[in-house]
Specification:
single chain, about 300 residues, mainly beta, 4-stranded antiparallel beta sheet, about 10% helix, disordered N terminus
């Protein structure tokens, strides 16, 4: 029998090896049973728990990169900008009964501004601002303690304003009612509870909801882009100012038959921003003032 063993290996060594193999086999079997039990329900109504997973070679304290947070609706700080043939108009919305709105006019392309807020009309909030016919403008506004919404119109460079029911009947703006937009005088369900930056030109209406820019298609809202900070519209399409990884500030993109990047307005866009179109230029009103640095090519 000794001749069956390998040289240098005693009978005792063979016994130890056999015992080791048996122990190893029992251990492997026990682990297999345990693993099987952990993947099975422990009760008839219990859902099986997934097997644990492990990650190797990573820092458990590292945080993954994420997209910028969605900017909330600006409320009283919302800005309006409208560029006319002979004057520029801008306003801060204010909040009825809380913060007074401000309407300003500039005749020198934004170098200087005159406060033309019609306080004598008991204006309490601005909901839309549109220039027309050179030195004229219309402001959809809340009036008085009751915050009744109407249209105020000026034909005198903002020196005098008066209510205009005809304009109000076909106006487009965000009303006090949550989740609603008025489009050419008719109530339309908004894509979120707090729409803002409602802008219209002809039959085209756009807005921002929960950080996404939307275009009204007549029956539904079409999403254009996320991380929107400002929006405007003209006969050629829609221009959105939004935050992207490619622009250290505000990227301006036109949405028409195709999507075209117009340029980047560098700087801090954490505050409120308003944009409008003036011929082949995009006019931007930010904390830095008025700029015309981006060509609409």
């Amino acid at each position: 029998m000794a001749g069956l063993g390998r040289p240098g290996l005693s009978r005792g060594g063979v016994i130890v090896s056999v015992i080791g193999v048996v122990v190893l086999t029992i251990a492997v079997g026990a682990l297999s049973v345990l693993a099987y039990q952990r993947t099975q329900p422990t009760d008839a109504g219990e859902t099986a728990r997934p097997a644990p997973t492990f990650t190797f070679g990573t820092d458990s304290t590292a945080t993954p990169s994420s997209t910028p947070a969605v900017a909330p609706a600006p409320g009283a700080e919302e800005r309006f900008l409208s560029v006319g043939a002979s004057a520029m108009w801008r306003a801060t919305a204010g909040e009825c009964g809380v913060t007074a709105p401000v309407i300003e006019r500039s005749g020198d392309e934004g170098e200087t501004w005159a406060d033309v807020t019609p306080l004598y009309q008991d204006i309490a909030q601005v909901r839309a601002l549109t220039s027309f016919g050179g030195v004229n403008a219309t402001a959809i506004s809340d009036i008085g303690d009751a915050c009744a919404t109407t249209a105020l119109r000026t034909f005198t460079d903002g020196r005098f304003w008066e209510p205009n029911a005809e304009v109000f009947a076909t106006a487009t703006y965000a009303p006090r009612t949550a989740g609603t937009v008025v489009v050419t005088g008719a109530d339309v369900a908004a894509p979120c509870p707090t729409p803002w930056a409602v802008r219209a030109s002809g039959t085209t209406t756009v807005l921002i909801c929960d950080g996404t820019a939307y275009l009204w298609g007549g029956n539904s809202w079409q999403a254009l882009t996320t991380q929107a900070r400002a929006i405007t519209v003209d006969s050629a399409g829609v221009v959105v100012g939004h935050v992207t990884q490619d622009c250290a500030g505000l990227q301006l993109t036109r949405f028409a038959e195709s999507e075209t990047i117009l340029g980047c307005v560098e700087g801090d866009v954490a505050g409120e921003v308003a944009i409008d179109l003036d011929g082949d230029e995009v006019v931007v009103w930010s904390a830095a003032g008025i700029s015309r640095t981006v060509s609409d090519g």
